[in-house]
Amino acid sequence: MKLITAIVKPFKLDDVREALSDIGIAGVTVTEVKGFGRQRGHTELYRGAEYVVDFLPKVKLEIAVSEEQLDSALDAIVSAANTNKIGDGKIFVTNLEKVIRIRTGETGNEAL
After folding, report:
1. Alpha-carbon torsion 68, 69, 71, 72, what sign?
2. How many CA atoms does the CB half-sphere of 3 hold within 13 Å?
3. Where are the alpha helices (DSSP H) in 1-112?
4. What span, in angstroms and rounded, lies between the C-alpha atoms of 72 and 4?
5. Model's pTM, two decimal places?
6. pLDDT, tens only, 10-43
């Protein structure tokens, strides 16, 4: 089992959710986060004063998938979140040692 952590632009959230739903992945945890990468933030003008926005709003998605679903889930996220512009985001894949569904006590792939 794998845990996919994807950081994407907020306006791409619905596209990514739909793409994952289309391939049969129903469970996604979403967190609003802020951060920066190569784009290093930007400057904005507010009431005549210029200020620097160091951290840009992003959305973090966490998706637990089986080994068999991994490649299709990654393809779905990349195609749905891609705008071909800097700041599109990153995807991290980590191993999950154990998953337990609290309600039923199911473990492993059955708990997903």
Report:
1. positive
2. 11
3. 13-22, 67-81
4. 12
5. 0.85
6. 999 999 999 999 999 989 999 999 887 776 656 6
